[in-house]
Inverse folding.
């Protein structure tokens, strides 16, 4: 993680006419500046393409330097897309509801986009200034403005895919503009192709959570409905994927009785989980709103101006509209204007200092938390030397800030605080409340008010942190692989970069096959795990068993892609070695097995995470490939339901892993002794991890703790009918041979899913054709890679 992003300084001139004034905001892919246009004699906002994971700039220099040759290809590809998006957006310059693009060009070994500079505030800020919600008339005025914009955008074949209060801007002249078209990467004529997942939790519809989602105007309509829900109720909408499992989100007029019934109905229809139940176009939605629209907008306009103006004062906020870069929520440029021209600071920390919207550290008071059981073992806090020889921090030393995306890690930190209560107030948790592998999460870390000391990362993006110069080898703070010797070997590999341990995890996530015991009894005559394992012991047997289950009226899995992680997890090498693409037999196996499952009608042809996939859990599906967290938190069972307690686990055809959260320590951590103690306790301390396992909080990444828990009779769960899965999970975890993580995993998995779907549904005639499609996709997106 680059925490010292260098900016262009005051006075730098671009294209002979644009003079840089100050930095307004920055994110993972770009920097936005306030500048003066000497030709038009007005202030403008300039967006600079600056993907921080690929490039750097020497302070005082204007040119951008790309790290490696491999990065150069990806950088060039992204820059072309940046300029194409600027060109596409410029087509809407005469459209009042979209930010105008005046110019775009290449310079300084990168690209720039010049946009209009706006006065006003985001809808998110507007809501904060207005008691977190708006009255009906004001809200309808804002929505009507957006419907007009979306109608034009959709006609042009563009889906925005990121509508939320953050990306709606209310100007001081009362006009409303839709921002950030960086998510609109796909046009209407290619809806059915694989798309990159861009989503904002609470506002994204279910189809945005999986690559084969059916995208269209209805995708934006869901997000618009969620925005209305937020505007009129003051509450964040329930996650769409949660609603797929259990839709108990209250209707808007239940939350706020002032909301008319017709408006409540419109919002709920716009937010329908199933696409077919949603409005198909903004015109259809408008028909239900227009008869009730406010006729006198002048009073609404006056109110908007009255509320919006104090938020921004005389300052203006420039907008980052491309590539998902987060806009500044306060007028940072005012700070720069008040500073001596010779004293302009160009560090990212300085630019972030004024951001009013940054997440603050969570309170150290534990409200409503379940007490953690007493942790056994010696308490060494009175000594200068702590466990395993670690240096103990002073009780009055600096606090550390632990950043993550939900409350899971916060709950685990209670085990540290219970064992070392004298440090409880120094361990401060920050929950950014966004997706763990989303751009929002990276932006939240980059723009954090408090310097992150420990960063949690989802396994899919852990390499981003372990390969960064912004995180340190754990040996530098006294944590050694010997301390971590009880960890499952694959987790050590996942947390290492070039053989150096840089991340640890408290959890292991070995894959398994989770099956219905009632169906096993009917079809096999027994639900004993060893017997069921014999029916799924390898892939040929798995297909034979699928046929047997089909004869009895059951599907062996919900969809062909259920098998993807299990099969591809057995591959023997990374997808890319150097710059050469490697496809071993695992890819062919996956394509062949997926096709056999489809042709035999052995599945419901669902996609992982879609509604049909979840429905199968309480329907006709025999099993799912999962992991410990899947069993504890994803199974669609509830007490009293027909399937509750009627599941068990077995190993399945081969070992693999799914998921995991890893912890890294930043170079800027001011209390490395405390950071080391936190990681040691969570990830190495057998006593603490034993207690964690006994509390059924997770499947811990410590074989000694797991063995002790098994020996002491812990691990059984009602979800599995009282069975204990720990031995199965341990065996599977030890058999995982290699992590094989690389930077291309997410993209390659997407290409493979797309090709497999086309092959299964007859759009491709052979496995060779499917592999050719995958290779062509790689060649199109990564010209730096050698594809044989």
């Amino acid at each position: 993680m680059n925490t010292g992003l260098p900016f262009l300084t005051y006075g730098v001139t671009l294209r002979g006419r644009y003079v840089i004034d100050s930095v307004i905001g920055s994110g993972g892919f770009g920097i936005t500046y306030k500048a003066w246009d000497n030709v038009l004699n007005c202030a403008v906002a300039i967006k600079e393409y600056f993907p921080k994971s690929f490039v750097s700039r020497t302070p005082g220099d204007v040119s951008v330097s790309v790290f490696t040759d491999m990065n150069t290809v990806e950088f060039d590809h992204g820059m072309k897309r940046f300029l194409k998006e600027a060109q596409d957006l410029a087509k809407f310059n005469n459209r009042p509801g979209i930010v105008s693009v005046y110019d775009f060009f290449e310079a300084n070994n990168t690209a720039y986009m010049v946009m209009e500079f706006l006065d006003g505030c985001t809808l998110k800020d507007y809501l904060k200034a207005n008691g977190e919600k708006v009255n009906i008339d004001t809200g309808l005025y804002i929505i009507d403005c957006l419907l007009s914009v979306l109608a034009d955008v959709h006609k042009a074949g563009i889906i925005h895919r990121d509508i939320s209060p953050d990306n709606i801007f209310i100007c001081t002249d009362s006009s409303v503009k839709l921002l950030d078209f960086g998510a609109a990467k796909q046009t209407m004529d290619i809806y059915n192709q694989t798309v990159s997942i861009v989503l904002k939790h609470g506002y994204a519809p279910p189809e945005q959570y999986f690559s084969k989602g059916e995208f269209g105007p209805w995708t934006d309509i869901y997000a618009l409905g969620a925005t209305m829900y937020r505007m009129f109720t003051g509450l964040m909408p329930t996650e769409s994927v949660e609603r797929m499992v259990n839709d108990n989100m209250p209707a808007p007029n239940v939350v706020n009785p002032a909301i008319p019934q017709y408006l409540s109905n419109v919002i709920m229809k716009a937010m329908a989980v199933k696409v077919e139940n949603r409005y198909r176009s903004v015109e259809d939605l408008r028909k239900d709103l227009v008869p009730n629209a406010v006729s006198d907008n002048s009073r609404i306009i006056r109110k908007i101006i009255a509320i919006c103006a104090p938020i921004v004062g005389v300052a203006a906020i420039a907008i980052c509209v491309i590539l998902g870069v987060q806009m500044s929520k306060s007028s940072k440029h005012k700070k720069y204007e008040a500073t001596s021209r010779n004293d302009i600071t160009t560090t990212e920390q300085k630019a972030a200092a004024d951001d009013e919207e940054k997440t603050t550290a969570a309170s150290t008071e534990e409200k409503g938390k379940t007490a953690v059981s007493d942790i056994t073992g010696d308490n060494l806090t009175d000594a200068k030397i702590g466990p395993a020889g670690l240096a103990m921090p002073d009780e009055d030393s600096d606090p550390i800030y632990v950043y993550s995306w939900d409350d899971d890690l916060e709950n685990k930190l209670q085990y540290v605080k219970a064992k070392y209560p004298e440090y409880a107030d120094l361990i401060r948790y920050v929950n950014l409340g966004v997706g763990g592998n989303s751009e929002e999460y990276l932006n939240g870390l980059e723009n954090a008010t408090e310097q992150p000391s420990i960063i949690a990362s989802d396994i899919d993006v852990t390499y981003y942190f372990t390969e960064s110069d912004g995180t340190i080898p754990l040996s530098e703070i006294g944590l050694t692989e010997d301390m971590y010797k009880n960890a499952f070997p694959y987790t050590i590999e996942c947390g290492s970069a070039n053989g150096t341990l840089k991340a640890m995890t408290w959890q292991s996530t070995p894959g398994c096959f989770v099956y219905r015991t009632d169906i096993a009894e009917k079809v096999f005559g027994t639900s004993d795990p060893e017997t069921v394992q014999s029916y799924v012991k390898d892939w040929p047997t798995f297909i034979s068993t699928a046929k047997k289950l089909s004869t009895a009226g059951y599907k062996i899995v919900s969809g062909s892609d259920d098998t993807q992680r299990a099969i591809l997890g057995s591959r023997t090498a990374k997808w890319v070695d150097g710059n050469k693409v490697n496809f071993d037999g695992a890819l062919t196996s996956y394509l062949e097995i997926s096709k056999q499952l489809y042709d035999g009608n052995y599945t419901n042809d669902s996609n992982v995470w879609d509604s049909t996939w979840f429905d199968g859990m309480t329907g006709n599906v025999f099993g799912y490939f999962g992991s410990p967290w899947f069993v504890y938190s994803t199974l669609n069972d509830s007490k009293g339901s027909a399937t509750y307690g009627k599941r068990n686990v077995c190993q399945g055809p081969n070992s693999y892993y799914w998921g995991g959260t890893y912890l890294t320590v930043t170079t800027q951590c001011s209390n490395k002794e405390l950071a080391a103690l936190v990681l040691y306790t969570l990830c190495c301390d057998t006593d603490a991890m034993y207690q964690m396992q006994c509390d059924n909080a997770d499947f811990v990444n410590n074989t000694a703790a797991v063995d002790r828990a098994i020996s002491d009779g812990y691990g059984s769960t009602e979800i599995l009918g009282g069975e204990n899965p720990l031995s199965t999970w341990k065996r599977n975890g030890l058999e995982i041979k290699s992590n094989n993580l690389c930077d291309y995993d997410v993209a390659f998995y997407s290409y493979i899913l797309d090709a497999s779907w086309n092959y299964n549904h007859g759009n491709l005639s052979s496995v060779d054709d499917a592999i050719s499609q995958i290779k062509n996709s790689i060649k199109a997106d990564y010209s730096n890679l050698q594809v044989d």
Notes: The chain has four domains: 13-119+315-351, 121-303, 387-508+659-712, 512-656+738-781. The two ends are 33 Å apart (CA to CA). The CA atoms of residues 757 and 763 lie 8 Å apart. Residues 69-90 form the longest helix (22 residues).
